[in-house]
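Readers of this paper often ask what the protein records in our data store actually look like. This encoding replaces a full spatial description with a residue-level series of whole-number codes. For reference, a complete record is included directly beneath this paragraph.
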Amino acid sequence: MSGRRLGRLLILALVVGIGYWIYKDRPTATGFIDSITGPLMGSQAAVKSSERNRVVGDATAAITDQTDAAVGTLHEGMTPGEIKDLLGNPDKIEWEKVEGIAQSRWVYAKLKRVLVIRDGHLVSIVIQ
């Protein structure tokens, strides 16, 4: 094979390769520019994401602290209205009869608490 023929074959292979790449990836000018500047802009996006995660984490901690304080103020003798004002509606209410007396169990799954209410007053707090 002559050198000229080999050169043409290499150019043909190069053109076919570029054609396949264009067909497969469908590159655009903005995509090409984004691929070059992505690492630079990605670091700014990472900073924004990190800041957002910090703010959300701080807010979650504040909410958790408030919830812990609310649970800490529970005490026997509270009425269902006082409990709802403090903790909100329970996730589940189970009715049962113990020694012939009707009582309800209010389940607060997120707080890991079960409150037993009998005769309109809180009689027991169970930590799950």
